[in-house]
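Q: Give me the 3D complex with zinc ion.
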Amino acid sequence: MLMKLHWFSRAEDRLDAWVTRQHQERVLDGRTAPIGPCPDETFLESVARQSKQIALSDPRVDHAANCPVCMRRLLELRSQHQSRRRRLVFTAAVGCCLLIVAAFAVVSWHGTNTPHSVDNMAAIPETIDLSNAGTLRGLPSNPAEPSPLQSVSLPAALVKVTIILPRFSRPGQYMVAVTHDQSVNDPLAHGAAAANGGGDREEVSVDLDLRKSKPGAYFLSTTHEQDQASYYYPLQIK
Ligand SMILES: [Zn+2]
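A: Here is the predicted complex, encoded as structure tokens.
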């Protein structure tokens, strides 16, 4: 049932996105007639940020939606705003990781006399080879397009995952997360690390605590610190 609803809403999103794209093309080609003068930059910025102070009945909204100049500027502002927001999410996730690491360090420092602590359990090494994997690229504005996928699996345990990144991946810091769906908002587990390697092969190693995860279908996501989007790979937890 949930699955069905999910597919239904995705189909609706797709239709919305298609209608929006058709309209944008008409506007950008100058096939619409905007009424009134162009509003100022501050107003366009508020629209791009989807500020609640903007009333949709405002005639300036109607103008911007039909004016090629305003539309072009709005699209620019919106993509700037979105990449800023993604950077914030990434920074928050890394900050959260650092806090967890710090808390873990304090706990294990205080707990050195308790050798039975579960947290001292060794992580199981696992390697995931994504060098030839297809991806689902999650972009909020575009519905994800299905592509040929190769499913990967991990045990419901404390794992040290080494991911061989898809060919031509960039070096730098990556966030790796296990998620319920194609968003990194509420991950089951996540970790961040710098990729190492070189040439056309980069790999990244992170610890993921999947001990509390139920077996089932999830997504493994990778996000480069400077990238616009996360990549998602279907993941089975066994
Ligand atoms: Zn205008």
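A quick observation: The pocket of zinc ion is lined by residues 34, 38, 63, 67, 69-70 (CB under 6 Å).
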